[in-house]
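Run log // design_07
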């Protein structure tokens, strides 16, 4: 790693060694897949099962799973965030979404698992087509939602088989070096950042339960648990989550199910002021008690395990799978949360400017690799003194690696940063906010095609940034705005335009999203990403991302409630990749105004070479 001046720290150790929050080790070993599958098939035969489903899930259906719950990765080698394996006696398939087609083929043993795109062949369709008549297909009811099991039952019935819930996951007995469950401390989240007390939140939640005509809510989503009780943890990577459950009755005090030894005094006081604390093992008895009382119990359709519904139903109660009211409350950020995230983005933006100034100086010289770039960016965020973690593993792609939307650099895949395009998608976790930003940079002279594609992506990004829309509009209705400039050239991208973002919680938060699947109406206070892209497989990739907040707008003469977006990410776009001939006057004016705001907000926070770089990057187009 070259010496860095004010734009970056001097490094005498290897870049990988300097990363506190990220590793570059290869996470999978395809050679282990065949013997593990053989052992699983033997175990299934012993239990008179003809097949087994292994989802990429824990009992909370989270995006990140703790190491001891990473059963799909252990069995198949695949480490992506969306997928499932299904193993029969004579065949097996690894079903992943389109983002992970290339990654899954590289990480697993293709002689054992057939990588399959879930968009073309969903798990249920694969079951219908491959499960033999009379076949008994096993599943772990803690790893599937109520709706998910209903779909499986339909598919298995269509194949003439039987779906069988197992009481013990067969993989657990085979996984002899399985990591221990996480023991990270549960800490209080400060009131100045939360902006609302647990008592106030619970009052709103219980009011929602009355309206829904249910007797209690099982809080199965750890994000909802953390938000409700103003606590944070560290049980999964990059997201400050405590893994646990809560039961909130329609009236009275809730119960939080967390291991007592993990709870700090401050967090215990915060929870104890409004509810009871019980060990995780007590959850089963309390669900059965609700069932025995004939209660109607709301389960979160998105995260509530089928096993929870079975416990309630078999005890005499009524499980009610539906939306968790906490999800929408959490999505609409209050004034304190918005103030915090704005502060976090200014801090993070200054770190990005220092980093990009260093990159602009060093990358053209040659000698930098993707790992160097990841380490340098993490170091800049650490210099803020307030970084708690990165918000996800940094995506730093050079050349063809930039065409992989969810690329993760390893020591094996690490590429030099050569003339062309370099993409970096990254973020930080700070107590006052969560950040997520993507910038695509030119190294050397870009081609005319690269400039065309970048500018079309930029136009789509600007279309979202400048959008105004009537109250009740969903992300699905806006998603096409980001794609139209690409569609006009016969191009597109295969991921959503944007996802929700939490407040010192997950960088991927629902239910809000800018996507063809985003049906939740957008409301003031919701934070989303705005990140269209373009990917030319085997050559290069482009993505531009800012975070935006839904806000109300006043339109003179209008008679409807109108919303728009406030951009809260501040960092220049790549001038060398902009083709001005493709931009109209309004787009140029918006970029110039944005760059003026970037300079105004960040100039005082950087100095020397970084400040000079920022000033040049923010000049009018």
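design_07 sequence
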């Amino acid at each position: 790693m070259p010496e860095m001046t004010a734009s970056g720290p001097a490094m005498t150790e290897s870049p990988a060694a300097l990363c506190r929050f990220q590793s570059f080790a290869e996470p999978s070993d395809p050679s282990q897949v065949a013997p593990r599958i053989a052992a699983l098939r033997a175990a299934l035969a012993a239990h008179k099962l003809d097949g087994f489903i292994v989802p990429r899930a824990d009992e909370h259906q989270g995006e990140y799973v703790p190491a001891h719950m990473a059963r799909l990765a252990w069995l198949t080698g695949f480490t992506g965030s969306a997928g499932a394996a299904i193993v029969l006696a004579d065949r097996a398939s690894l079903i992943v979404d389109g983002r992970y087609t290339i990654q899954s083929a590289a990480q697993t043993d293709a002689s054992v698992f057939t990588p399959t795109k879930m968009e073309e062949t969903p798990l249920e369709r694969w079951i219908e087509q491959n499960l033999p008549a009379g076949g008994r297909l096993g599943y772990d009811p803690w790893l599937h939602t109520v709706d998910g099991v209903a779909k499986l039952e339909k598919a298995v019935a269509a194949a003439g088989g039987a779906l069988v819930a197992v009481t013990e996951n067969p993989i657990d007995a085979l996984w002899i070096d399985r990591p221990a469950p996480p023991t990270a401390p549960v800490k209080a989240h400060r009131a100045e950042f939360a902006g609302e007390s647990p008592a106030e939140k619970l009052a709103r939640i219980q009011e929602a339960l009355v309206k829904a005509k249910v007797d209690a809510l099982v809080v199965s989503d750890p994000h909802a648990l953390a938000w409700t009780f103003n606590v944070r943890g560290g049980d999964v990577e990059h997201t400050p989550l405590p893994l646990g459950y809560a039961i909130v009755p329609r009236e009275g005090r809730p119960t939080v199910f967390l291991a007592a030894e993990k709870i700090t005094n401050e967090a215990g006081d915060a929870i104890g002021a409004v509810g009871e604390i019980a060990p995780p093992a007590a959850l089963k008895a309390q669900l059965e008690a609700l069932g025995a009382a004939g209660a109607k119990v709301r389960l979160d359709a998105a995260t509530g395990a089928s096993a929870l519904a079975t416990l309630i139903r078999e005890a005499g109660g009524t499980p009610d799978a539906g939306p968790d009211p906490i999800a929408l409350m959490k999505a609409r950020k209050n004034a304190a949360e918005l103030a915090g995230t704005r502060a976090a983005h200014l801090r993070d933006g200054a770190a990005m400017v220092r980093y990009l100034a260093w990159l602009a100086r060093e990358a053209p010289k040659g000698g930098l690799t993707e790992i160097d770039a990841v380490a340098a960016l993490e170091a800049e965020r650490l210099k803020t003194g307030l970084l708690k973690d990165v918000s996800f593993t940094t995506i730093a792609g050079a050349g063809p690696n930039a065409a992989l939307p969810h690329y993760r650099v390893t020591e094996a895949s690490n590429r030099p940063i050569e003339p062309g395009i370099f993409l970096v998608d990254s973020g930080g976790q700070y107590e006052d906010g969560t950040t997520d930003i993507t910038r695509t940079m030119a190294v050397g002279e870009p081609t005319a095609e690269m400039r065309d594609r970048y500018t079309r992506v930029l136009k789509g990004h600007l279309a979202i940034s400048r959008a105004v829309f009537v109250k009740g509009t969903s992300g699905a209705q806006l998603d096409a705005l980001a794609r139209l400039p690409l569609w006009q050239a016969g191009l597109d991208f295969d991921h959503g335009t944007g996802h929700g973002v939490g407040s010192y919680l997950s960088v991927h938060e629902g239910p809000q999203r800018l996507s063809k699947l985003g049906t939740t109406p957008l409301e003031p206070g919701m934070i989303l990403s705005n990140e269209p892209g373009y990917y030319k497989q085997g050559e290069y990739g482009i993505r531009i991302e800012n975070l935006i907040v839904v806000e109300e707008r006043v339109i003179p003469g209008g008679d409807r409630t109108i919303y728009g977006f406030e951009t809260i990410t501040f960092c220049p776009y790549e001038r060398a990749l902009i083709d001005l001939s493709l931009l109209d006057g309004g787009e140029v004016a918006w970029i110039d105004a944005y760059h003026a705001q970037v300079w105004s907000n960040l100039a005082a926070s950087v100095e020397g070479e970084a400040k000079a770089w920022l000033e040049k990057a923010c000049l009018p187009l």
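The mean pLDDT is 94.
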